[in-house]
Every structure is written in C-alpha cells, then in structure tokens.
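Hi all, long-time lurker, first post. I run a small reading group and we've been trying to get comfortable going from sequence to structure in the token notation. Rather than ask abstract questions, I figured I'd post a concrete chain and ask someone more experienced to write out its structure so we can walk through it together at our next meeting. Sequence below, copied exactly:
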Amino acid sequence: MVLNVRNGGDFDKAFESFTSSRAGALYVATDPMLLSQRGQIVAFAARQKIPAIYWVREFVVARGLLSYGASIRNMYHEAGVDAGRMLKGAKPSDLPVLQPTLVEFVVNLGTARALGLTIPPSLLVRADGGDSVADASS
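-- Answer (accepted) --
Happy to help. Here is the structure in token form:
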C-alpha cells in the first residue's frame, strides 16, 4: 500500500488508512516535507507498535527504529564546499553535479526494545560506527 501526503493536514487520513490496512511495517520514503513532520510520523509508528524504516538518521534521532540513506549532514557539507568555490569565483555551471557518497545505516536499540524486537548482531555490525547505533531507551 502506498499512501501519499502533500501537507501536514493529510496525515490523519493517511494514518487512518494505514491502521485499517493492518500493515505489519512502515517505510517512509524520501521527502523533505516528511522529514519536517518526523516527530508526528515516529509517534504514530510508536503508538501503533509498527516497525518503521526511514530514509535519514534524523528520524532515528527522533526515536524511529532504523534508517538507511544518504547523510544529510554530508550533503550540507558538500553544499558548503560548493558555496566556498563560488565565493572564490567559480561559476555554478562549472561545478560538478554530485551524487550522495555517504550512506548511513542507523539503528535505535531503545525503540527496538520498545517494539519487542531483537536486532541481530549480524545487522548491528553493518551500522555505521560511532553514534549510528543509538540507544535512546529513556
């Protein structure tokens, strides 16, 4: 099932449709509007006790279960590098078009516990180092 939302007012209807479908999991696709509504989306998944995967770490920081996607932090860094090049005289048309090169896999172990899920060690070792395996248990 694919649910489309165009603005914050569409969420209640989408959540109702999702709930009535009795779906077993949720995937939140890439969309800046969805990122801005991450608190509402993550709270819905928690209320429904539905495992959800998101496209960026910011959802996991907001207590989502896991994410796999390009690093927004890295993309902003690259944008800053380009801005610096333009301030030094480079023409925007001369700058290369870049694809994201840093992809992150992030897991929130506290959320997994709240959902009654055990994340296998073979999956945890694939999470990116450092703060990519979050334990937000409080």
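A couple of things your group might point at:
The two ends are 32 Å apart (CA to CA).
Residues 82 and 90 are 9 Å apart (CA to CA).
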